[in-house]
Every structure is written in structure tokens, then in C-alpha cells.
Amino acid sequence: MPERAVRASHDNDGVPRWIRRYGTAAWLFIGIVIVVAMVVFATSRIQVVFISVFLAAVVTSVLYPIVSLLARHMPRALAMIVTLLATFGAVAGILTYVITSVAGQWADLADQFGNGIDTILDFVENGPLPIHFTQAEILDWIDDLVAQGQEYVTANAGDLVGQVLSNAGTVALVFTILALSLFVTVFFLLRGEDMWRWFLNQLPARSREKVDVAAGAGWYTFSGYARGTMIVALADAVLAFILLSVLRVPLSAPLSVLVFIGAFIPLIGAPLAMIIAAVVALAANGILTAVIVTIGIAAIGQIEGHLLQPLVMGRQVSLHPVVVALGVTAGTFLAGLLGAVVAIPLLAVIWAVYSTLHEPDPPITGRLPRTAGRE
Fold this sequence. Notes:
It is a multi-pass membrane protein. The protein has helices at residues 3-9, 17-45, 47-70, 76-126, 135-155, 157-201, 205-246, 252-262, 269-285, 287-313, 321-357, 369-372. By secondary structure, the chain is mainly alpha-helical.
């Protein structure tokens, strides 16, 4: 090799440039992994604070446009109070309606559920299946299960008491999270822009514009996801309520609220709500109604995925389904149900910030370079 080529391919210390380049990239990747791991670890240690701030951000993204609209005609503090009171009133009204409907239909549902169990037992005993079980045998199995449960409770009474006390502590923790998130929401709605301006002023002047643009893109994506999910969940609940009411399925209102909650849990929330609604329909009105409920709620899911989400969210949250599945799975393993809920908005925000700060090279058009010269 000519001496000039040797000099061109090595730096002053004799290390080839390709080793230096890929080595630098490897160290950067390791640094990113360490930073992400530290963030996850720190978040797990202050999970209460993270959940409170996340809930406050969700509520703020939904209510901020309403507060800003009312603030044009009244002081912002009054607009914030009116919006929060109206929200609390709506939530309280929905809960009251759900509780009264459950109380009014629970006795009838229990009777229908018992009739459904008798029908299933009769089918198992006298139906066309090749294997038959008598009702006495099934009752004996149930008695055995009850006896085993009693033995387990007796043997593990101390642990169960500890779990009950732990659950009591969990209830107090939930109230703490709600109170803290409400406190943070009030300041986000009232002084959010001033708080963000103060934060920018703490940064070097040369970095403020870039940070403001990146954070704006992230907030635009997060608020679009939160508002869009809220609208989609509400539409799913209304459609489910209409379907269940037409079919005269008991507890239509509570089941619709369950569908509403399930819309916030990607991938698994809607199927779980569908299964529970189908079981109630089976117990109340028979297998035909259960099949119709299953097909109807599945159709609502298709309407959500192919019409409502593209129409409501647009391109604010443009993640590939593979990324959604992997993100939800990873979030579930890291933080359980909480991880499954927050994985998608966090991934969407990260991608929005990256897309804003990243300056991509010209895209590849036509045939890939590695296959262009193989014919």
C-alpha cells in the first residue's frame, strides 16, 4: 500500500479511522442505554411522583384548551375553577348513574346468572358432548375446591392479613396520588406557560430555542394522544352502550364504562372488556346474544382502529404497530399495568422529539443500494 494511503487510513496514533468511528458510535450507544436505564430506575424509585405528574399532564392536555377558551371572557383562575368543577360534576354524575344501575339490576342479573349456570350444567350432563358429568359430580368438585380454599386460608392467615393491610395502604396511596395530581394540575392549568418560561431561562441562551421547539413537538404529540384517546374511548363507550341497550343486556352502563377504561390500555384493554361483556350477555340472555355482543364489540374495535383513531389523532401519533406491540410488552414487564398504559405516549413523545431535532439524509428511492448491482 502506498505511504500516502496508509497515512490517510490512520489517525496520528495509528488507529484506523473505521475503528475510531464505530468505537465512538458504540460508546455513544452505551451512554444512551445507561441514561435510559438510570431514568427507568429513578422513575421506579419515585413512582408516586411519576404517576401524579403523568395524570396531571393528561388532565392538563384535555382541559387546557377549555380553560384557555373560557379565559378570553373571564379571569384565568376563575376559568380554571369552572372547568375543574364541571369535570368533577360530570365524573360524579357518571359514577352515580353506574352505581344506581348496578344496584337496580344486580338482583335480576344474579337470578339470570343462576339460570345460566343451570343451563350449562344441563348441557354438560345431557348434551351431545362425548363426555358427560352429572350435576352431583360437578357439585362435589366445587365442594373440594371450597375445602381446599378454606385450608389455604387457614394455613396462610398471617400472610393474608398482611396483604389486607397492604391493600389498605394502597388505598391511602391512591388518594395521595390523586391529591398530588390535582395539586399539580391546578398549577399546570393556571401558570403552565410561566413555569415553562422559568425553566427555559435556567438554560444557556444558545440552547433555549432548540429545547423549546423539541418540547413543543413532544407536548403536541402527548396532548394529541391524550385528547384523541379520550375522544375515541368515549365514542367506544357510547357505541357499546347503544349495542348493549338494544340487546337488553343487564348492566349496560357499567359495561360501557369498562369499555371506556379498556380503551386506555393498548392491545389488551378492549379484548378484556369484550370478554366480560360477552360473559354477562351469556348469563343473562343466552349464547346468541353473547355471540352478537362479541361480534358487535369487535366491530366497534375495527371502527376505532380504522376510522376514529386516524380521524381524531391524524399524524400526531404515527407509530408502527410492531413498535406499539413491543412497547406495550416491554412496559408491562417493566412496570405492569402502569407500564402498558404509559408506554405508547412516552414512545410517541420520544419519537416526536427525535424527529424534530434529527436532520435526516435524503431518503432512498427505488432499489436498495445492496441489490442494485447484483443482476
